[in-house]
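Treating backbone geometry as a discrete language has practical consequences that deserve illustration. The sequence in question and its structure tokens are set out directly beneath this paragraph.
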Amino acid sequence: MEYLNSSKTIYHPVRKYDNDAESSSASASESNEHLIPEKDIPFTHSTPSSSSSSRAILGKYLPFVLHLITILIYISAFIYRPTKVVIREAFDAPTDAPIEYETVKYFGEPDGSIYFGPSNNKTDAAWEGLLTNGPGIVWISDDAASKLSEPTERVRDYNREINPDVPGYMGNIEVFHQLHCLNRIRKLFYNRIREDVHDEIPEMREPHTMHCFEYLRQVIQCHGDVGIMSLGWDPTGEAYTAIFETDRQCRNFELIREWTKKHQVLTFLPTNTINA
């Protein structure tokens, strides 16, 4: 029996032929043509982007910034509001006339009002009493005069002869000029303007009355009363009717009238009288 040779068999690597090496090199070169050169590949970080970081900071501080802006708006409104009020009051009441409020019920019917109804001696006397013997011309201090939007006249010498303590300037309390105009229109309506009125030439009667109409229109629009008037229903006329007998918050007129009397000055020489 024959036995195989028991010696170890040694293997050697097969030698590559030159044409095989060239073939492999060519194949690799063709594959590499489709790859981006290593030096052209952009370098990127794996850390979070800067935009994400900015959004995180904005989200953290935005509520605080909005709250701060709101506070600044409130502070600005608080600072500027008193200035506007002071300016308005400077034109409305540059004197120390007392301003107090009271509840007053309006009258819609003649009953209960001495000013309502046809012009006669009784109603005329009531209206004249409102005017404090004139259209409310008073003396005012230098400080009050300086706050007016237009220059005003100085007190005349004959006023100082009557009252040496009268300050330097004069002014017209507007509520009494308004009542003066309304009283004039009332008298014209009832044909009660006297022919012997000597403080006004006949040629001025119509322009004076036209002035009163226009002046009162401007006063009403200027004050712009936005109070709500209640409405009722008239079943006979099938229409809404205004309810005039309502309570209103009004300035105490008697206090203003008494103050005006104490500060009143003559607007004409003592030999003349004021008739409207």
Observations:
- Strands lie at 101-105, 137-140, 169-172, 231-234, 239-242, 247-251.
- Helices lie at 18-32, 50-92, 121-130, 142-146, 157-162, 174-189, 205-223, 253-262.
